[in-house]
Design goal:
There is one protein chain. With 268 residues, the chain is of the alpha/beta class. Helix 5 crosses helix 8. Helix 11 links the parallel strand 6 and strand 7. The chain has one domain: 3-Layer(aba) Sandwich (Rossmann fold), CATH 3.40.50. The strands form two sheets. The protein has a five-stranded parallel sheet with strand order 1-7-6-2-3. Belongs to the ComF/GntX family.
Length: 268
């Protein structure tokens, strides 16, 4: 039974509808009082959303106002007549239409994201889905379906799960949107994006993605929410957005857990 299924705490046999939902909530609340949930990042009781108080205070969550095109934080609110996009997005817009990130990718967030991505710590998936549901609420409201950035089958076998799919699934379920895990595939293996320049990243994934025939029918004319873990230069998301648009999607928006402070440049 997966973490996303909620385990035994999320099931009440023979009870349906609002009664089941209320009973589940009451049961979870009572269990949390008797056995306070531990933070994912320590052995302390969780302060909020599964993080210890110290870790929670250090995560740089991105709040409005942010750039509509890349999710970068604006230094101040320019008011009703301010541009909704940063200078970089106005000058050179991404292939995806809009983007949102829950937090900045830095020392505070990197550890838990890497534990999730490379450490097989799948218990972080519902936590990150909740973060994204808040930061990307305007994108979710207008989306028709959710598509995770895919892994090549070789990497999927070695990692055993697709981190983007583990976030996208509960996100789509909570928002009651279609979840399309097989619409977009990665038939071409690529080297890791780590350490590459912005141009190197773009070339590395330029022809890495494709839309399946079944996926083409399900995305045609629809606004898609593409989900990934981290936005670095935007090369991977751009490559995905381009093939989705070419296959008939009406628009593609992007939601990620975190973004580097300057997504136009690789992190130092």
């Amino acid at each position: 039974m997966s973490v996303q299924d909620g385990g035994w705490r999320g099931r009440l046999k023979g009870v349906g509808g609002p009664l089941a939902s209320g009973a589940r909530d009451a049961g979870r609340g009572l269990l949390d009082i008797l056995l306070p949930p531990l933070a994912h990042d320590s052995r302390e009781a969780a302060a909020s959303a599964g993080l210890s108080p110290d870790a929670w205070s250090r995560v740089a969550f991105l709040e409005a106002p942010v750039c509509d095109g890349c999710g970068a934080a604006f230094e101040c609110d320019g008011g009703d007549f301010a541009a909704d996009r940063c200078a970089a997005c106005i000058a050179s817009p991404y292939a995806f239409n809009r983007a949102r990130a829950a937090c900045v990718y830095d020392e505070a967030s990197r550890g838990i994201i890497l534990k999730f991505k490379h450490g097989d710590q799948q218990q972080f998936a519902p936590l990150f889905a909740r973060w994204i549901s808040r930061s990307a609420a305007p994108l979710i409201e207008t989306a028709d379906a959710v598509v995770p950035v895919p892994l090549h089958r070789a990497r999927l076998l070695s990692r055993r799960f697709n981190q983007a799919a583990e976030i996208a699934r509960p996100l789509a379920r909570a928002a009651r949107l279609d979840y399309l895990p097989d619409a977009l595939i990665r038939p071409m293996p690529t080297a890791s994006q780590g350490g590459k320049s912005a141009r190197g990243r773009r070339l590395n994934v330029k022809a890495a993605f494709a839309v399946t025939e079944a996926g083409r029918r399900r995305i045609k004319g629809r606004r898609l929410l593409l989900v990934d873990d981290v936005l670095t230069t935007g090369a991977t998301a751009e490559a995905c957005a381009r093939v989705l648009m070419e296959a008939g999607a009406r628009a593609v928006d992007l939601a990620v857990i975190a973004r580097v402070k300057n997504a136009r440049e690789p992190p130092k």
